[in-house]
## 1
Amino acid sequence: MTAGWTAEGGHGAVPTDGVPVEPAPGPVRADWPLWEVFLRGRRGLNHVHVGSLHAADAELALHHARDLYTRRNEAVSIWVVPAAAITASSPDERDPFFAPSGDKAYRHPTFYRLPEDVPHL
Amino acid sequence: MTAPQPHGAGPAGPAGPADDLADDLAVYADLVHETDDGRWAFGTGFTDPLAGVDTRVPAGIDGGALAMYCRMLGDDALVHSQRLQEWVTRAPELEEETAIANIALDLLGQARRLLTRSGTADGSGRSEDDLAYWRAPHEFLSVPLADHRDADFAELVARVLLLATWRQAVCLELRHGADPVLAAIAASAATELRYHREHAALWVVRLGRGTELSHRRMQAAVDRLWPLRGELYRDPPVVARLPGVAVPAAAVRDAVEDALSGVLDRAGVDGPPPGPATGAGRDGHHGPDFAEMIDELQSVARAHPGASW
């Protein structure tokens, strides 16, 4: 992975070089740490990454996420995660990471005849 | 204060320039399973707090007094909102600016409903706009604490904490009042104010227990603002004319004081006692920079009378 980038996807990779991200108390910093925001919708089962924000600590990150990402009743639950806590695969290593799966048709369950009377398949 | 209609600019627009926006919203796609309003990606979830409420003034309530009481509460919200809006583009961080603007918008919404109620209660038919934009500064009835111009961020959060704590306590009582419209407005405002209080309290504690500098400035803000709450504990004469409707200060004072000292204790900040109350503000008397703020608040409406968008 490339150091200094957040997880790919959502609102995109955000450079984090030089951005302090540990939420623990410590010396006074000029910048607030970066947090990634995940929401679960009213009928959703899982939390979905929707973007990121800066906040002084976890509690305020939740408040900011509430103000920035749930203005129109999008969610019933919010997760905030320090961006530095995310280990992401790198765009540079995409080929060695994902290409080997491309020609392995047997990994896809397409060779079975589905019985008519089995529901929910 | 005629707001743009919410349905005019739904987030899911047609193809074309809106495509970028649609891409941007695609990250939400997995959150959406069903909407109750096709114009909005997530449904509006709107509930009108005044839906189904009879807006006639109940028998036995003095309409003129009720109108004046609504203007007092409405002006507190309107003026505090305007002072908070002065921070937009000047806040320390973008995220916090959104939080401040959010609080200001909530208060503006409360002001709109209260001023509208004032216009119907006294039979004058004055609209929220008439009352907000076409009154002179001495006709505004807000308390000095709402009028105050914050010198720094510490004063901003101290003032939100103070006003939201008091206002929430008043609204919780108003919910059971004899005027159904005021009760409905208060019930919806109370939930908003709870959040304002929580957000401001987080900051007061954080700054109070932060660095030596942040503690000093938080203490200075509390020293400056806390005495002004004396005016909140003095009943204007109109309260006595509205038994069962208006909330007397005695009904909320203890709860407000407990809540405030709870936060200050955690913040390690000392709160001075309430200062003397003269009724200033509620009688139309305001400080020297009040007219300047009202002038800015009214400037667009007065430059383009009757304009709408």
Note: The radius of gyration of chain A is 20 Å.
## 2
Amino acid sequence: MSSGRDIRRLSLILLFAPFTLWIVLLIALPHMGMIVLSLREKVAPRVYEYGLGNYIAFAQEPIYWNTLMRTGSMSLLVTVLALLIGFPVAYYIAKIAGHRTRGALFLIILIPLWVSDLIRAFGWILLLRETGVVSTLLQWSGLAGGPVEFLYTDATVVMGLVYTVILFMIVPLVSTLDGMDNAMIEAGYNLGGSGFTVLRRIIIPYAMPGIVSGCIVTFMLTAGSYLTPILLGGKNSSWFTEQIYDQFITRYNWESGAAFGFLLLAFTSLVVWIGLKLSGQTLASTVARS
Amino acid sequence: MIDTSRSGLFLIGYRLYLAAFFVFLAAPLVAAGTFAFNDSLFPALPWQGFTLDWFFSDSEPKLGMFHDRRLLRGLYYSFVIASFVSLLSVFVGTCNAFLFVRGTFRGKNALYIVMVLPLVIPGVILGISILVLASTVANSIERATGIELSILRPGIALVVLGQFSFITTITSLVIIARLRKFDIAMEEAALNLGASRARVLATVTLPFLRPAMIAAGIVAFLVSFENFNTTLFLVGSEAPLTVTMYDRMVKVGSTPVLNAVSFVLMLGSGLLALVSIAVQRDKSTT
């Protein structure tokens, strides 16, 4: 009997090995290395000192923290819009569509997921730029006198980001709503609730884990996105990941880039934490739910 | 099915909303694909007629994608990277599935959350943190021994590791979901019939997991192929396709050859997606 237990322990240890290697070598150590690097300053060529200099430099330069705040608030806006636009779609797929259409609709929803960010952004550029499809069509139809530039505005960036991340909102929503017993909704109506009351008192509370999970993933993806803001927003998009790229690649100032990276991670984690507290959910009940 | 509507008008409006949403989803993809066939030097209206030059022409100015050395090289590197990433991540994902579904150990829920985390860490940060660690290690080894470990410098190996670091979460989730549905009685029956543990694994459990492993591998392949954020920081001289395309878009300006590449990529991922669906559909019948 004890040899059976030994085998069990051995196989557990063997299974732990890849998991541990992956998490320690590729997630934990790199992040610690990034934090250590961010605390290092160059005081002279090849001479380094440890301190908070990189973070102080961040705090003293309004451009940096304005960019971080702007990235954060625009990401929140994108998250809210994705929820508002995506919820009706998810509800239709999970609750209203027939069995066959449902599978088909879900597949259509997933199609953009299979296509690179780059191609999606490229498609929007072709549609929205001054010589693009929308501008040309507007001129042909006589609605616009001359070429119209839709790119390089905040509204375009927000729209492009909503487009990029909305799938990650819809998918968890569909899977939570799917598990909801239709009788609960019918009972709400039978008890005399209006459509709005049923939505507010029954459907939304039930879907809360899915809503929060979708919001977390959407927010993190948006705040961490790089391509969409740059390509659709141009040079003035001022997205924080752009600052990180700038410090790392353009200025070759890795210390400050690492500090920026840590700040982005800390800031987004803080927002997610506040969101979890406000909604009364935990990470285990939302994103890690399977 | 529920009739939330009670008024037909509401349902019509709802369906129109859905239709509009799907138009929104399709619009940029259609635009990116269609202009590959426009006989013009710019991916823009007006429509100049149908052509396949942007795929097959072998001379400038309309050098087709299948004759464009740099694009083909990018395609090749993407393919190599994606193959490594999907093999590695399916292997670790399968181990993780057994660990979290079968294993009993303390702190399992906490470790499960740790397993999910890489998916929500911004890709840019995964990229820079792995770059920082690899360079630090390479620098200290070089200082201590004088040996230059080029594998730790930006290049294909680092890109594979960087993508693997978060794609493994995806493959683990897919395979875990499948293993949860496995009826343990099947294994017990095989054991009672005298099969060894290894044999049970090879003939009962792994065949049951195969559809999920294939689907996870396809997803991993596609996510790797289209990844940009993490790759950007780890890329060396062997640029994969997305980086090559981005460079061309920003530096040279877009020509319809990029639409041709987009079209081919969309076609390829569409086919792979269909394969993964077909494989997964199989499982409901077995």
Note: Chain A touches chain B through 84 residues (CB under 8 Å).
